[in-house]
Amino acid sequence: MNTRQDTVSPVQADAALGQIAVALPGATAVFRRLKLDYCCGGQISLRQAAANKGLNLDDLVAELAALQRSDAQPAAQDAGTLIDHILTRYHEVHRVQLPELVAMARRVEAVHRDHPAVPAGLAALLAHMEEELLSHMAKEEQVLFPMLKAGGNPFVVHPIGMMRAEHVDHGLALDRLAELTRDLTPPEDACTTWRALYAGINQLRDDLINHIHLENNVLFPMFDTAATTCGPTACACGG
Known about the structure:
It comes from Andreprevotia lacus DSM 23236. By secondary structure, this protein is mainly alpha-helical. The protein is built from eight helices and no strands. It has helices at residues 17-23, 27-33, 46-53, 57-65, 79-111, 122-149, 157-180, 192-219.
């Protein structure tokens, strides 16, 4: 299973905007909100860009640093602690990730529509994934997770089974993402936005795989006696 490192590195004020946009998924949303040109003007440093716009550099660095997230699991393995971790580390993050990825995909498809490697249909796929994930997470937050936090009951295996089935669908969507993007490999002449888009999708893929793993292999087996190990044909974890 491919995962990012549990350690994070500090945001460098002298790094170029374009470099940060590609290396730090989510930074593009910050740059767009602040009208910092990370694509065509991405060669200037974060420090210089902040000075040009009259922005507080420390505040900007802190906002970008907050985008760096660890994959470390909580030390306590009780259901309540694990659910709270899933909600904050994955549910909240997916809700931020996907709208930005959809917006970037639409831009790349429009600007580079004549490029032979353009990922035609990528924005539509990401929008569909967002819709499906929002529905899935709402079911967990409103129905399943409260049941699990209350200790579960003999009938909880049924919503757990439904969530596992939907995890399979999420895995198939990740496979389709890989197909559309040549396994997240931008062409050599890709612009910064295109590269940042694929870096962001890579983060989404890693996050979703880890999210599914925690639920299928750690949380759900606490409540169903017939839990099976997640295999490559059963979900997106690939392990």
